[in-house]
Records
---
Amino acid sequence: MQYSGFKVFLEGLRGNKGWTPAWREPDPKSEYDVIIIGAGGHGLSTAYYLTKVFGVKNVAVLEKGWLGSGNIGRNTTIIRSNYMLPGNELFYEFSLKLWEGLEQDFNYNAMISQRSILNLFHSDSQRDVFVRRANAMILAGADAELADEEQLRRELPFLDFYNARFPIKGGLYQRRGGTVRHDAVAWGYARGADRNGVDIIQNCEVTGFHIENGICKGVQTIKGAIGGKKVAVCVAGSSGRVMAMAGMRLPIESHVLQAFVSEGLKPTLPGVITFGAGHFYVSQSDKGGLVFGGDLDGYNSYAQRGNLPVVEDVAEGGMAIMPMIGRARLLRSWGGIMDMSMDGSPFIDKTDIKGLYFNGGWCYGGFKATPASGYCYAHLLAKDEPHPVATEMRLDRFKRGHLIDEKGQGNQPNLH
């Protein structure tokens, strides 16, 4: 079914009786050309581009729970490409360009809103760092704009410009950044992949891999064995557990990241704002709630829940830059399992096992990378060579000493 404004109007007149399911509920076949493990944003986008762009038709996506039950539905919905290092900047700029045409591409309203993202800075040295980042962004083809204190006072008068401890001296804007409705991204990619013939099989946990003589020939699931010429793992925070079934140990740790939303408020924030002297980022949803987050919980876990000290820490970060947030009531919170790599950057690569591929280690960059991750992973699966913007995202880069250390914090994933 093709969605349109006319279709909505027509169905309203007909009592909305003509809508059909957005995707099928098929039983698994005995064999596929490509099996994708994980029906999150990255897995679904991989299936979509694999069928639409690269012409691979016999594809299945296996999901342990329900479609979109992982991090794709547990994030703060921010999109941006304000990275600095070559291994990341070109990739995330490619992703932002895909976001800009995504709704027309898969015929689904994902509520993409390029309302801007602003990174505040609070010292002269931090300003110099952001100037360097802005120049790197512009050289890579992205947009960047420096704002001084006077401009921010005019545009964002609710910020605390009188805080002696964290004086706001300016900020780095990326006007093309913004937010997207995260659930709609999963639904849109699922619908598009299904229309291209992909079998999306929910409640189908993978329990093992079928590996013979160093070649992956399929997977074992709770619904039986499924053969596959290529198997693509794409399970975010569960990467370590899934790849362990293939005998692999990854340079990844799983941490909990909490996010929060306040009660609905009148329009207050024009875009996304981040605190430069601490870890706090906030935007306002279309429903009026302030959506915000901060640091990892600081311990390894596979639980999709957090702890109270981080709630306090994140609230303190918000109060430091805009004290009026203290009058808002917290409506709800949630936790996502972050697959934190040792240099803060992701992997899209083949493994040493022929026919087995891996996508993971996204740290804080997973949601904003969804279109480019799927496109580049599909490129790798179809052509057995990395996409030009993902050539640095190799699994062996630590062995080779070619880290993409975006934040310069080395092998401490709890700090990324």
---
Amino acid sequence: MRYSALQILKEGLTGNKGWIPAWREPEPKAEYDIVIVGGGGHGLATAYYLAKEFGVTNVAVVEKGWLGSGNIGRNTTIIRSNYLLEGNQPFYEFSLKLWEGLEQDFNYNAMVSQRGILNLIHSDPQRDAFVRRGNAMRLSGADAEILGPDEIRKMCPYLDYDNARFPIQGAIWQPRGGTVRHDAVAWGYARGADCRGVDILQNCEVIGFVMEKGSCHGVETAKGTIRAKKVAVCVAGSSSRVMEKAGMRLPIESHVLQAFVSEGLKPTIPGVITFGAGHFYVSQSDKGGLVFGGDIDGYNTYAQRGNLPVVEDVCEGGMAIMPMIGRARLLRMWGGVMDMSMDGSPFIDKTHIDGLYLNAGWCYGGFKATPASGFCYAHLLATDRPHETATAYRLDRFRRGAPIDEKGHGAQPNLH
């Protein structure tokens, strides 16, 4: 069924009796061409692009829980492409371009809202760094503007411009950045993949790999053995635990990242605002709640819950630039498990085990990278060659002395 305004009107007038499930609940087949381990945004996007772009439809997505139960439903919904280094910026700009046409592409309302993202500047060296980053963005085809305090006041008059410790001297502004409804992305990709023949297997945890003569030929699951020509793992914060079942150790640590939503307020935040002297970012949902977050917790864990010191730190960051946020009541909070790589950049690569592939290490960049990650992973699985925008995301880059030390995207484990 194709969704449209006419279809909604028709169903509304006929008692909504004609809708069909967005995806099937199939039983696993004995063998597939490709099994994707992980039914989050990246796994579902990979399956979707394998079917749509490369014609590979004999694919299964294996998810231990339900769709949207992992990080894809636990993030702060921000999309952007304001990166600096050559290994990252073209990739994230490719992702942002895919976001811009995503809803029309998979015929699902993901609530893509390009409201813009404002990264505040609080010092002269930071202005120099942001000017450099803005130039790198423009060279990749992205949009970037440096704004002065007067221009920011027109957009956000409620910020603390007289703060002696954190003066607001300007900002780098990306108008094409914004927010997307996180779990709707998973549902849209799932629906698009399913209608092209992909099997989505929920509540089907992977408990091992089928290894024969040093090669991977499938997975052992809670629903039995599923054989495959290729196995593609993308399980975010669980990457180390899953790949350990294949005898691999990864240059990854798992940390919790907390997110928060306030009570519903009148429209206040024009887009996304980030604090340049600490780690705080905030946007406003369509329901009116302020959605915000900050640093990862400083300890390793696989639990999807946070701790109170980080709550205090995040709220302090908000108060430093926006004192009025102290009057808002916190409605709810949650935690997602981040797979933090040693240089803060991801991996999309074949492993040394024949037939086994890995997509991991997304740190803070996972949600915004979803379309490009899925497309590039699908390209790798279908052709055994990295996509042109993902050539730097190799597993051996630390051994080769070629890390992507991108300072502009968030914390990394070697800082804790």
---
Amino acid sequence: MLIAKYGKGSEKLVKQFEEKFDVKLEAEYRDFLIKYNGGETPDTTFSKGRRKEVLRYLYGIKTEESIDQQFEYFDFKEKGWLPIGSDVFGNYFAIGFLEEDFGQIYFCNHERGYRKSKLANSFKEFISCCESNLVDVERMHPKACKKRMIENGHADRINKVLQKHWKEQYKHYKKMKQEELVL
């Protein structure tokens, strides 16, 4: 699996998070936060059996996409899990922190009240079921985006707002550094 990490975390940062929110994190997930502190996972798919989910972010602590930012949407203590990532639609990947499902990974659909469905027994197993492709930066170039829109018969939808978005997207992906996630 490839990740564009947010930067290194630290044992101190993770410990402060656990104390602040009164949770104990599973060892493999703690190690991930210390080493990567979350990151972007563009073009990544979780696949196990017939189950497939797209993974867009793995949250970090005090980062651009942060675990605690997600707490405004629900009471994680009541749910018994922490959001650790999301897909492009705002659905969560979560890790159980209660004794009966400690360290297990779930998919939580926001359209179904964040009802959880189990994906893996551990964070390490979850990561092993994820596969990524390198981002094709040239495909993101504004000229390439415009060309595809025209080829697909949508030239009438091209406007300044969309062109600005393409430029920002290209700039973002051009500076992105993806690396293999190793636990």
